Fold each of these.
Amino acid sequence: MAETILKVENLNKSYGKKHVLHDINFQVDKGEVVTLLGPSGSGKSTLIRTINGLEDYQSGSIYFQGEKIIPNEKNLQQLRQKIGMVFQSYDLFPNLTVLANITLGPVKVQKRDSKEVTDEAHRLLKVVGLDEYADSYPRQLSGGQKQRVAIVRALALHPEFMLFDEVTASLDPEMVRGVLDIIVDLAKTDHMTMIVVTHEMNFAKQIADRVVFLENGKILEQTPSDQFFSNPTTDRAKQFLDSMDF
Amino acid sequence: MAETILKVENLNKSYGKKHVLHDINFQVDKGEVVTLLGPSGSGKSTLIRTINGLEDYQSGSIYFQGEKIIPNEKNLQQLRQKIGMVFQSYDLFPNLTVLANITLGPVKVQKRDSKEVTDEAHRLLKVVGLDEYADSYPRQLSGGQKQRVAIVRALALHPEFMLFDEVTASLDPEMVRGVLDIIVDLAKTDHMTMIVVTHEMNFAKQIADRVVFLENGKILEQTPSDQFFSNPTTDRAKQFLDSMDF
Amino acid sequence: GCGASKNSNSNSANPSSVQQIKKNGTIRVAVFGDLPPYGWVNKNGQRVGYDVTLARKVAKDLGVKIKFVQVNANNRVDALNANKVDLVLANFTVTPERKQVIDFAKPYMKVSVGVVSPKNKKITNVNQLKGKNLIVTKGTTAENYFTQSQKSVQLMRFDSKTQQFNALKNNRAAALADDNSYLYAWSKDNPKYTVGIKSIGPKSYIAPAVKKGNKSLLDWTNKEITKLNNEKFFLKDYNSQLKPYFGKEVKPSDVILPYK
Amino acid sequence: MSWTVIQQSLPMFAKGFELTLWLSFVGVVGSIIVGVVVSLIQYFKVPVLHQIGSIYVEISRNTPLLIQLFFLYYAFPVIGIKLGAELSGIIGLIFLGGSYMAEGFTGGFVGVPKNQIESGKAIGLSQWQLARFVVFPQGFSLSVPAMAANIIFLIKETSIFTVIAIPELTNTALDLIGMYYRSNEYLFVLVVAYAIILVPLSLGLTYLEKRVRYGSFGN
Amino acid sequence: MAHSGINVLFEGDNFIRLLGGLWITIKIAAGALVGGVILGTILGVLRTLNSKILRFILRLYLEFFRIIPTVVLLFLFYYIIPRQFNLNMPANELATLVFGLWVAAEMSDIVRGSLISVPKHQQESGKAIGLNRYQLYRYVLIPQAVSLEIPATINLATRVIKTTSLLMLISVMDVINVGQQVIEANNQSYPTGVFWVYGLIFILYFLIDYPLSWWSKRLEKQRLERNNG
Ligand SMILES: Nc1ncnc2c1ncn2[C@@H]1O[C@H](COP(=O)(O)OP(=O)(O)OP(=O)(O)O)[C@@H](O)[C@H]1O
Ligand SMILES: Nc1ncnc2c1ncn2[C@@H]1O[C@H](COP(=O)(O)OP(=O)(O)OP(=O)(O)O)[C@@H](O)[C@H]1O
Ligand SMILES: [Mg+2]
Ligand SMILES: [Mg+2]
């Protein structure tokens, strides 16, 4: 049986009085790609932010590689080196060059050798077709290029596990393709373990092993991808899929 | 033969030294729906903003209902009463209620009877399912609701002609449907003349009589809708369509 | 042991003792900077005047350098109390209130409040000031006198001498009250004005002042004043610094004290 | 510190307090009026007045109030213009405050998002209607924080009136110190007096800012 | 009239002395700005941390310097503090200290404001790649905040320079105090001297402050254009 990388147990999270996640239970195995679908405001972002320790939670547990995470500054900082996360908004540091954006984590946090990290950064940039931009600043890049660099930045930390939160939502339609292709590659070629939040149904269909469908902070269904898109278990999921294709 | 509402002749426009529109020639007949497609930065927004007099231009002419528009403040103000325009960003006036947003133009600009305009506003709000929000402020509405009000606001001026610039681009996917349905209705039921810029290919397919495809500020092709989507004339348009469906 | 330590304590707490001043090699003296002919700065940027000459002499006799600290009338007490200066030589009139908060040495000049007014609307009697505006500088004996004894006069209180004299020239009040000693000088410079009331209120003296309890410097200054008196230093000072600025009607004995 | 000394000084401070309040009030109201006028002139780019307005704003903002007052009170009479102390003070304060307020309002007008102005044009509003229904209502509420900061700033600036012998709070304190040498007590009362005016005002304005922000932002 | 009033400025060393006074003004303003900006930056960073007590204390510090008029602050520091704490300081240094503390208070607010207006997702991306808190400030937040705060800081500098005019009220030989000496000393030969001396001081202040405000406005405009573009 495959190793379980992440396990979430009875997770409950509120913003103030607003209960946003209700009794969330699910797990992700090594090499598995899970897509998180659900209407706007259903709690998708909140869930993966909580997994990455960017949000605290009220009850429940999160296990990473079998170990329970005690959420304190020190543990979370270490955890985040093993989890790569890419957000919707281009989140590169505008004050650093592309190369410096990528090497900051490995060199300053993981204390790896600067020369080695730089070489690797160039290699990864080549893979996403952006090596010539290594010394540019983020503002000189288009949205799609920025997102590709953000993915490289996360990968440079050699994460065990990647989280993607609607990484193409603020891109121009023609730019979307390039970014999604990279993620498909990560899944199919490198067998990277990941959780992907997206609104691109075709992309989700192509990449997902399993779909977790969320509504109002509850998991309505967890279904293997083929089944979910052809014949979802719940009516709500069916209705959601209908509204997504015009 | 159908009456020509809008005719653009040899239009050239630059921002400073940047030449953005090159020798644009096209026309729109009464009752016709034209969609403007093209990659990001190709000049779609600039073109419809120029038509509505929000941008000046360096050479060429624009004719509205057969009359050449001399672009001065007075003429443009009158022209804009006959052209409704809805933008990407929710552009309601936050200091006015929904009702006041809608009636401002008809009452203050067109000097129509306040009572009559108010009745009409309520009727239109009912059509888009928002009559109960007449006295709310824009901040109390969701993005999709705001966009629907913005459409009503434009319609209340009884325009001869509507311009839509990516009106769903900043909406949540599930909200998109409601807004597009209204535009489809305007086209099919009311036979409103319009130019629509969109990235929703399915929507464009369904609504357009004719597609104008722009790249780098030039019109690459003008093709009837059926033909464009099945078999576009230019390679560039083919490539564009390919990238749009994943 | 106990007494000695207290003594050394109070010594170290007194940055203005003669011993400490000599050790520093500098005495800090508060003077006016805009009050000819007592303490002012001439057009070459040099501090000159009757008080300033005295201050230089004091420093010389102490065998130290001098550092001038320019003050306004209402800063003089605080300048001492806040240890900003060791000695005040800024036309400081001895009053009972001031004696409670600082210590005066022996006087070196006499003075009383005078009132200057335009010649064409001359004020010769306090009664003429009833209900009218009178200019004073904050913290002067003139202000004190009118505040306490002439309540029917409306005072306009300024921060500096420059401001008060400018206000008078701009006709902002019927008259201006200040120590008669400088009104004489000022009215000579400004011939449209005259000192209509030469002396009002109590006669008083001008003396050097030190911080309350600074016995060391007080004793030394007392001796110094006596010595200077004997050397007729004040007469010389009068002749060089004051006489050119006064009209003929003023005699040395109106200003400086008789020497034995 | 002696409470008796403080008590005895209270009647005098009360007078100074009243005067500070009155001068502040007139100064603030005057500044707002001048600020509105100047910012409207700048907004509509009224010929000639527009340039004069810019020069005024630069001069007023880049010189100290103290010198402006000296000039008005001590130097102007030399060229034959004589103003009373309070009048000089108020004119000086309004001269200064008018430009601060004008900048604040202009900042608000400029801060109105571009798409608001374009939507206004798109429904056919004239230049004036655009200003009246879109730019001014939104611009003024955007400028409330700047206005609040300016009001507090102007009230504090009245303390400089002491140099032209206006018996407001600071003048009163400095004067009492000069006569009776009780610096601790008088400065204490002075600080308390300013706190009485400014703390509630500052809290009130912060509240107002929140209200206004809630009312018009968050499109 | 024997002489034109404006000549009062060129009599003897008058002009040089006035410039000398101005130099003292500038030195005090510059010292206060350098010290205040450094201290204020530290305080500003502290004010974005989680400690409620620390934030409250620093907030009090800021409000104190905001509410009390600068004239009053000068007198407080000049008269009360040295006596109470037996701290002795020449007027120039004391003025630098008072202005420096005031600058630090205002600066802490500017720094805090620009730190919290660095978009939240920047902070989160920093955390997501495992930066600790110090690294987050060092590599992400502070570099980005600096460009936001420069216009406000220059603007603060113009206010500090203008406010140095109050130094004449304590015994600092600033340009205004020198001006008063000049007016008194030349009173007889130049009855209109007051007009020219104050006029010159007015212009001098303008000449220093105007370029700074112009610069700050330009930076601010550039920033807005960058943001909109
Ligand atoms: N910081 C916050 N404070 C309070 N409520 C919040 C906060 N962030 C999110 N929420 C609420 O939590 C719920 C879940 O939000 P979340 O952003 O996780 O949804 P989502 O599924 O990611 O939606 P979308 O598809 O629009 O990104 C929503 O109701 C939202 O309003
Ligand atoms: N105000 C402006 N100043 C300078 N250049 C501009 C300005 N607005 C647009 N441009 C440039 O004009 C070109 C056309 O822009 P436009 O916004 O019309 O494109 P678009 O087709 O609407 O793109 P999108 O699909 O991203 O909305 C682009 O190169 C753009 O950078
Ligand atoms: Mg989300
Ligand atoms: Mg566009």
Note: Chain A has a mean pLDDT of 90.
Amino acid sequence: MDAIILQILNGLDKGSAYALIALGLTLIFGTLGVVNFAHGALFMIGAFCAVTLSRILTLSRTTIDETQTDFLGNPLKVEVPYAHDFFGPVVGDALIDWAVPLAILFSIPVMLLVGFVMERGLIKHFYKRPHADQILVTFGLAIVLQEVIKYFYGANPIPTPAPDVFRGSFDFGAMVGFEANQIIYPYWRLVYFAFAALIIGAVFAFLQFTTFGMVVRAGMADRETVGLLGIDIDRRFTIMFGIAAAVAGLAGVMYAPINSPNYHMGMDFLVLSFVVVVVGGMGSLPGAVLAGFLLGILESFASMSAVIDLIPGINQVIIYLVAITILLTRPRGLMGRKGVMED
Amino acid sequence: MGILEVKDVGKRFGGLQALGDVNLSVQENSCHAIIGPNGAGKSTLLNCLIGKLIPDTGSVLFDGQSVLGRTPYEICQMGISRVFQTPEIFGDLSVLENMMIPIFAKRDGAFELNAFSSVFAQRDVLEQAEHMLAEMNLADKRHMHAAAMSRGDKRRLEIAMCLSQNPRLLLLDEPTAGMARADTNNTIDLLKQIKDERDITIAIIEHDMHVVFSLADRITVLAQGRPLVEDTPDKIKGHPKVREAYLGESA
Amino acid sequence: MNIKPDFSKNANMAETAPAFLSVWDMHAYYGESYIVQGVSFNVHEGEILALLGRNGAGKTSTLRSIARIGSPLVTQGEIWLDHQPLHKMASHEAACSGLGLVPEDRRIIPGLTVEENLELAQIAPPVGWSLERLYDLFPRLGERRKQEGVTLSGGEQQMLAIARALARDIKVLLLDEPYEGLAPVIVDEIEKTLMHIKSQGMTTILVEQNAVRALELADRAVILDTGGIVFDGTAAEVLENDELRAEYLAI
Amino acid sequence: ASHSGFTNAPAGATVTLGFNVPQTGPYADEGADELRAYELAVEHLNGGGDGGMMGTFSSNALQGNGILGKKVEYVTGDTQTKSDAARASAKSMIEKDGAIMITGGSSSGVAVAVQALCQEAGVIFMAGLTHSNDTTGKDKRANGFRHFFNSYMSGAALAPVLEKMYGSDRKAYHLTADYNWGYTTEEAVKSSTEAMGWETVNTVKTPLTQTDFSSYIAPVLQSGADVLVLNHYGGNMVNSLTNAVQFGLRDKQVNGKNFEIVVPLYSRLMAKGAGANVKGIFGSTNWHWSLQDEGSKAFVKSFGTKYGFPPSQAAHTCYVQTLLYADAVERAGSFAPCAVAEALEGYEFDGLGNGKTLYRAEDHQCFKDVLVVKGKENPTSDFDLLEIVEVTPASQVTYAPDHPQFSGGALGTCNNGA
Amino acid sequence: MFGLDKTDTKLLLIVAVLCLFAPFILNPFPTSSGLAQFNAGYPDLMQRFVIFGIFAVGFNILFGLTGYLSFGHAAFLGVGSYSAVWMFKLLSMNVIPAILLSVLLSGVFALIIGYVSLRRSGIYFSILTLAFAQMSFALAYSVFTPITGGETGLQLALDDPRILGISQTAGGNIPVPALFGLEMRASWDLVLGDWQFTFNAGYYLCALILLAAFYMAIRIFRSPFGMMLRAVKSNQQRMNYTGLNTKPYTLAAFVISGMYAGLAGGLMASMDPLAGAERMQWTASGEVVLMTILGGAGTLIGPVLGAGFIKYFENIFSKLNDNVLHGWFAFMPDGLENLMVTIVHPFVGKGWHLTLGILFMLVVIFLPGGLVEGGQRVGRLFRRRDIKSTGPEAEAAQQRNAAE
Ligand SMILES: Nc1ncnc2c1ncn2[C@@H]1O[C@H](COP(=O)(O)OP(=O)(O)OP(=O)(O)O)[C@@H](O)[C@H]1O
Ligand SMILES: Nc1ncnc2c1ncn2[C@@H]1O[C@H](COP(=O)(O)OP(=O)(O)OP(=O)(O)O)[C@@H](O)[C@H]1O
Ligand SMILES: [Mg+2]
Ligand SMILES: [Mg+2]
């Protein structure tokens, strides 16, 4: 029983990551109809916003410490962050500690800008082109973005911890009456879950309570006619793209403490996020979110050793197995719209 | 008994009874027109005949055999062809290729793995296609992308495609809409000629009364999913209810 | 490659009264094919102009060029609407300047209900007819307001396309075969509406295959052939000129 | 192919070596470090720089005038850490550039694949970083040599230290990467810890493509285990360790003992990726720059002066492999693979960092001291992340060639190619 | 010729000539020159060009004609490779049975996956194929290790049975794949001055098979079957109401292209007897998609060009290290040399991905029809110049120029 509760919690958390990534993707892919292979790269850039901010905050001057030596036997160079100089050691350290949450603020303008530039400079010309061309160009872009990040940050993962107060875990089991140590849960994952819920809610509200969503959907179905009705669809597409980039970026920023960011983390998530979006159903936001959570939870269950012992290798294939089952039983995924990318 | 027997066919869309208790009998080698106000259920009825929709109730017999439960391609292979209300053609293919496909379907059946001979080596098909294009005044457009044609031309192509299959029952959904007058008249002549020569049965939906009255042997008026009257063209012309609900003063 | 319009046939180009909509020496291409070949004409405020010609003459292309859709691509020419240079605008700007087009294939937006299709038209100012008024004109649309637009019957879709244009406050209405697929009674209804809005000052360009019907309604007529203007004059002139009708309209 | 009796016999005044390392993909940084070491080795062989370990190497055959008087040139390629790409790259070096020896790589899959290729083509393969038992076990080849340690050795070296630190009454839970290297490492660590009295409560395989290990970490505590063994490498290890620490495993008490985590195979680059999470965590490693023997010191100095930071264990292995190859050629007096292999087989040497070392003839595995390390509590720099806890002597990690963990496969005979 | 029309015959002949003379065409630079790094005329890469060419040509039969975008074709490549290696292990080192089995098994595999996946279209189909391929990859890498060799790939061993052959050679080595005694790796060098050209048995076998495969593809493209496939892409609805059953058409296309992939996989294993699981990963499926689009989807020669392009970058650009760069720019003054190396450095060697990414973008932005479109544009340019130079105006202009 507690094992199951535990996996549900894990699943919710994994699911919120999937849902958040898929949410950004479905805005571009499900709504604008662009097969965006660069979405993973946007997620990755978000995570590197956190890395960059923490690098900026820890920008240091070097002083020589004569009492210690480095690996070559020379006096050790010690780095003192400028933040200490400007804000004093206490505030300075606190700033460095809070780099990831601060990066949320930092990343929003950055990602919006990235999204706008990407849409205006590139994607704009590809709405009417075949999906295959979209794949090629966005895949090329993804490689370029990755390589640029690799050039500056290297290929190794870069640890980007959460603020000290969020490190470690709490005993969820003990709180709800189970034995101690049976159901533990890290604080940061709780934060991640809450954050994901917030972003998902905000995006839903924006698209639900304004005509924006409807106009963009209409524009995707038939740009020409929407233009004839006096609507500047280009501008709305740009905004939509910017929002999607920002959502992807935020998902990345918040993910940085969970797994150290590296330059190819986007590619690792790319296939999965496409699967989530399609299983959710093309053009459906709630579908993508639902599929994200569903796959997250099922993946967690499949990783239980009792299950693996029963069906060896199930944890390797569960996502795809579920995807196949759903797509075969429901022609348009969980909540797909008719006619979106069916040909 | 007619070649097409529609019995008690009904179809609902959610709360809307699009068709109810439709009974229709189309005699072999006749032209049967179905007219009626917009949204009366005419296209829906045709959809039920070709397997695009499955009626909720009733039965449809073609030449004594039920068409319900068959897939569209099977129904077509039985000898029913349809021209759609908005032209359905192969936009990415050339006009000539568009013309050849139904002829292949006629010759080779629903599937044939004919992967090693050249399309243009199939002389018989090619000749028939060229002939049909010439008949439809489309010969000079044969190498054009079908999608790049004007709409009137597309419609003529679609009719030609259906005719080339030598169907026993040809269903036409507003075949002359958007066609220039001259071509409309050509089409009427062609249909008449084909009906006589090849003993084809035609069921036609049209709002252009000129076409209806030139072609039809019998007319069914459909209103709100139900047949209102069925009679000969002359009787229908003078029918007061039809005049009021459908034809208006201009007819 | 500058094909100058033939002024001898362009009677009213020389008129002094300032035109409301004026198209001057417009050329447009689909890719490499040269379709609109130097079209010029004027329309005065409150006038109905019939734009006629055979299939493939370039009527649709002309309307699309005026509406600045981008395909066909206008390479040269000026379009002025009420002193605003449409030729410098994108299609949505032209629409906001008072242009409304009812496209020939209706272009109902998939995925949206009837009501959403209409609401969409009222997002960008200025707003025209209210939904209630539109539903009064086309009661069928009112009944079907929650239905997805593309599942409407052909005629209902046509009504929706017209209603959508009226939902915006426009100065010039471009109608591309608006009667297609409509029952005769509805056509009568729409003609009445056109006369009504004309009396309120609406300027209309009407493309229609049923030339006689269009000419009876219109004040003036322009006839197109292979992308160029072959006649520009009053509607009555065409009705009286058998030669013209036979040559370009085949009636 | 030339007619001197073996593949790519050097004809002119130069000899070409092929450095086949991951330049793209997750191990690109490791590959870059390997490449630095190779370049340094070539510099030293050609008589440039300070000579590095050539001065401390027990063999004096190398003169700093290239190999057999021929200037050493090299070509590089990208393995992408995929066996296909690695073989393509190695083939191009052999077929196009005339490389006479191929070396490099940073995973066992690649090492095994390229080793088989070199056997077939008739060139020598000097493995880079490869830790799986199979490389010199069931997939061993006569033309391939490994200077790196292996899963068995990790287990054998770790067990005594773990016993000393954590006692012999422990319950271990293994998370294992679901592919060959993971299997051999799990088996090795399991059998050596069980031998000293530990109990293995559970072993769970995790997919290669897994990035978030939470659902595997979370049940660990419920199992009653008090040690978690992470048989993961690279990104998998960084993530699983990070997740384990996130879940607070290290702060827990189970069975009245502190919960502990063990990482059988450590590398400094991984430790850097995992950041503060490695503090106090034990594992084994092939070599570390803080070793104080003369060879290591010379190498660190030479490398550090040139590049500004200390070398990684992968760099060390690659450097040493190049020297060993060159030395064997000098001693054999020929580039012919079989002659070189003969010179390497059963060869004993010293001064290359891990003390006295033997290239065993039976399986071409190097036997040398293995380091047990621990994540440092107070690192002074980015490189100072691990501290050496124990240098396990070679004798303790040596096993019989027919040890069950290495069974199957045959070395075959050396191939000179054509 | 061969039942092809003139342009197709020309195309086939061009491909034949390219294949035949590839060892010359791909090795244009003398071995001693700095540019020799750009030579691609060594057996392994030449084999790869044609093998991936076959793969892409087959993929294009499905994607180019029907528009169904499969993201799982690498699975068939993998199945082909595994079957071939198993054949080498169990039966003999002759490549013929190995290749036959690869084609057959991948065909069966494609039939099963295609039958299920083709119940959906559009993106849903793509994701279904992706899911199947990813499952195959994940399982091959882990649970199926006993059959697939897992991480290290499936290899030959000295103790394999090889019932119709020998387990090991007299010298105690594993025998190599051969065609009735002709070893696939057998090569013959032609040295002409500073140039060296290598002729390799395996390459020519692959090239012959590519020609056959290409010829078949032309026939399929031009056949009624090919036309039906294009019709499927254009309007399925119309197909159905024309009395045609689209499902067997798409399934046949899927199986044929799966068999092409299996053939490529079998050849790959025949040239280099090892089958790695990465061959089935989505990135490998993605690669063939990229090859096809890059070259020009729906064109005959495009996929082959695309395959060559990507493989060239992967194998040639990744080998350009700083050492090589310094070699090139050595003639410059030191400062300039270093500057040049610094500029070029990020784009070669470990930066080859970057170059590839940039080229993908440039090609798709400026040549919407892929490389073939680029070729056509160049062709048109020449033709236009021809017309110009023969036109009367041009003549007049020339005369004027001469007079001045
Ligand atoms: N899929 C559907 N869902 C809901 N209602 C539908 C659907 N398809 C058709 N209808 C409704 O059913 C009615 C009959 O439609 P049908 O297309 O058969 O009319 P029709 O007689 O062909 O009219 P028209 O002459 O205008 O083409 C219409 O009111 C239409 O709105
Ligand atoms: N997308 C396109 N690409 C290329 N050519 C086109 C395209 N659309 C139309 N054409 C060509 O342009 C010409 C004019 O077409 P247009 O649609 O304007 O004619 P139309 O007068 O509206 O005819 P109809 O009465 O049949 O609707 C036709 O010859 C047509 O083939
Ligand atoms: Mg209808
Ligand atoms: Mg038109």
Note: Residues B 42-43, 85, 173; C 153-154 surround magnesium ion (ligand 3) (CB under 6 Å).
